[in-house]
Amino acid sequence: MASCNKRFHSLNAEQVEVLHQVLSEVVPIHGRGNFPTLELRPRDIIIAVRARLQKQGITVRDVRLNGSTASHVLVRDNGTSYKDLDIIFGVELPSQEEFQVIKESVLGCLLDCLPAGVNRERISSATMKEAYVQKMVKVFNEQDRWSLISLSNNSGKNLELKFVSALRRQFEFSVDSFQIILDRLLESYMQQESQHKNNTVLAESMYGDFEAAMDHLRYRLIATRNPEEIRGGGLLKYSNLLVRDYRPASETQIKSLERYMCSRFFIDFPDVQEQQRKILSYLKNHFIGEERSKYQYLMTLRRVVDDSTVCLMGHERRQTLNMITVLALKVLGEQNIIPNTDHVTCFYQPAPYLAEHSAPYLCLITLPCSLFCNHVGYFTI
Fold it and tell me: Which family does the entry's similarity section mention (predicted)?
């Protein structure tokens, strides 16, 4: 790849071909109720949304492919599978009024994709949102101005359209810092050029050093910059990388990184119920078709929390560790998997009559291997 500067590189012909395949693969957008499934190519919906925004007077600086899909284009065998197609529209959002224009533009494009014969005039934007939008987020403050519209896909491969004017931090680790600029490729599609391989397509590493980030991706290394800026979800992503055989690029820095991430996780999600909801949501979105990896992930997360949490009181820490362990046991129970009995801890909860006059709690006992049954369950005394 020819070098532009330290942040940028040009994709080679093979990478451009992979990118073309990703943008040209039909992605079903599943409708709720009686609404039909829309079979869309990402490139078509991207071009349509960009054109509508520009027609409505919103400046679109560029369009980029972001995250795990961009990493897949650059290094196909990187140990992580891509789920969502994460598209970033760089836009100007001087006020909150532009958010409404963006929403109406996206929903209008979806309306245009409905099958022939549908009376579009009778379908409102609110109805289209209810039928096809999985998630909608809006953030507008001094440091962050962006919105997200995630289009529904029952297999978890959501098409995520993100409209960014300002974003304080655009990556967590170097291996997910890549953004591929799509504009030249989109122009060739609009002009119906068949020689897309000849296009110069640039990729940028938000990590700041493209070659270093590429080495981390090739050799499955974990590195970042300014870890204190990583939000609470970084802990979950870090544990996911560990499960996929990534390892720290620097053993001397990793303990500090883990402590930062644990602290931020508990700042952003201080309540154990919030923590559980966040973890369950992460499992649902990132382990589709990988059910057997969930237990390993949860126990890896538990180990990191146990080793590197310094910001909690003892009972708060135990609550979180117990919650994660119970989730792991439930995963085993659902899959009828027997864990390694060298490290089995069984949980039992007192019967109601024993806890009538005290707060409910979980007790921990470690059982000898010979006592562990050939199924996972909860023991009540």
Answer: Belongs to the TENT family.
